């Protein structure tokens, strides 16, 4: 399993959880799994976590050199590769044995993200690698993506040549979650990585923008990442102390307890493959407001499990409309029931079983399936 990050790193998100859960499922089916990834300062280079062998190497740039080299030196002991393309692939078809199946896992297309956050020259290189280079290199590798809209973007934006199959994210079923008393009436929440492309500053601004209509509204931000400092300064500069709470990283039970107590989950991201936190919130009966972009339009059922911000609309207006609907107890119960029913359709066991089936079929095609 080749992945840019692993779940214990500070900027890990849904892609890391997906790769890790699939690794654990493959392990449960008798496979030996090596999770090869980047390394943050202070982390061990090699260790075993939950029986998964983890190999860490390189910073966010060197990882794309060191991981293919590791794979080259270990290619004789590798039977299958899942190569996660987080904008940039690991070029595994160039270094593994010819008969070794390679699956390309793509959560979403990164071209707009490159141009939004990188210097122009570097963004162009990123688009070249993600587009023409990867398109040709992986043309014979089955590609796995997580949503129908991500599949469409691969075909339309990257002109992808390989066959594409959809294997959605799973979701861990919450156990014995007791909503904790939470500041704010209503309380809205953002849960996820604190990174630039998540546009969390827009969620923070809701505390001021909705003050007239909802003077007791509080925004709760759960997560860690490099944007924590800028968000704290934004809160202080705009006089939102007490109206916005930065919780940082929370344990899973505490995160679920806070999320379950919220009226609404809000994500302002414009770049997603699916939106794992949308389904995690839905499992707790909490609907989501999100932009009508690839991935999120798949995980949010507009008007049923949440509301989408469409072209010509702004986040503030859609959040206000959602809060007005949810002020009606009957409507709130209806939406919560729909959210829970929707979330039950997604399990990590189903995700893992689907990918296991793809791997076994490919091995059988090549005469190497294990009994």
TrEMBL record:
GO terms for biological process: carbohydrate derivative biosynthetic process. GO terms for molecular function: glycosyltransferase activity. The keyword Glycoprotein does not apply. The keyword Transferase applies. Residues 13-170 form the Glycosyltransferase subfamily 4-like N-terminal domain. InterPro entries: Glyco_trans_1 (IPR001296), Glyco_trans_4-like_N (IPR028098), Glycosyltransferase_grp1 (IPR050194). It comes from the Bacteria. Pfam families: Glyco_transf_4, Glycos_transf_1. Residues 182-337 form the Glycosyl transferase family domain. Keywords: Glycosyltransferase, Transferase. Signal peptide: none annotated. PANTHER family: SULFOQUINOVOSYL TRANSFERASE SQD2 (PTHR45947). This is Glycosyltransferase family 4 protein. It comes from Nonomuraea turkmeniaca.
């Amino acid at each position: 399993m080749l992945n840019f990050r692993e779940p214990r790193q500070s900027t890990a998100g849904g892609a890391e959880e997906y790769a890790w859960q699939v690794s654990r499922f493959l392990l449960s089916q008798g496979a030996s799994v090596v999770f090869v990834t980047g390394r943050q300062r202070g982390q061990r280079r090699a260790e075993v976590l939950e029986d998964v062998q983890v190999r860490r190497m390189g910073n966010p740039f060197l990882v794309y050199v060191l991981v293919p080299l590791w794979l080259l030196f270990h290619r004789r002991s590798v039977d299958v590769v899942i190569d996660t393309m987080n904008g940039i692939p690991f070029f595994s078809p160039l270094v593994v044995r010819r008969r070794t199946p390679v699956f390309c896992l793509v959560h979403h297309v990164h071209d707009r993200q490159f141009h939004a956050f990188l210097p122009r020259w570097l963004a162009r290189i990123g688009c070249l690698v993600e587009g023409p280079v990867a398109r040709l290199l992986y043309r014979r590798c089955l590609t796995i993506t997580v949503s129908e809209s991500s599949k469409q973007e691969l075909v339309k934006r990257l002109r992808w040549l390989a066959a594409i199959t959809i294997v959605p994210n799973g979701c861990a079923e919450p156990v014995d979650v007791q909503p904790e008393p939470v500041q704010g009436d209503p309380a809205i929440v953002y849960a996820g990585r604190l990174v630039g492309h998540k546009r969390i500053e827009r969620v923070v601004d809701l505390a001021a923008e909705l003050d007239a209509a909802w003077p007791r509204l509080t925004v709760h931000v759960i997560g860690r990442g490099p944007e924590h400092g800028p968000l704290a300064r934004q809160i202080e500069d705009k006089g939102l102390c007490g109206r916005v709470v930065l919780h940082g990283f929370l344990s899973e039970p505490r995160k679920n307890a806070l999320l379950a107590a919220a009226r609404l989950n809000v994500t302002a991201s414009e770049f997603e493959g699916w939106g794992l936190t949308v389904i995690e919130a839905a499992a707790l009966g909490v609907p989501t407001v999100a932009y009508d972009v690839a991935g999120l339009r798949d995980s949010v059922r507009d008007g049923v499990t949440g509301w989408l911000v469409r072209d010509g609309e702004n986040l503030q207006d859609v959040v206000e409309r959602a809060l007005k609907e949810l002020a009606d107890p009957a409507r709130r119960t209806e939406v919560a029931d729909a959210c829970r029913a929707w979330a039950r359709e997604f399990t990590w066991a189903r995700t893992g079983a689907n990918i296991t089936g793809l791997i076994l079929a490919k091995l059988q095609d090549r005469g190497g399936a294990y009994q």
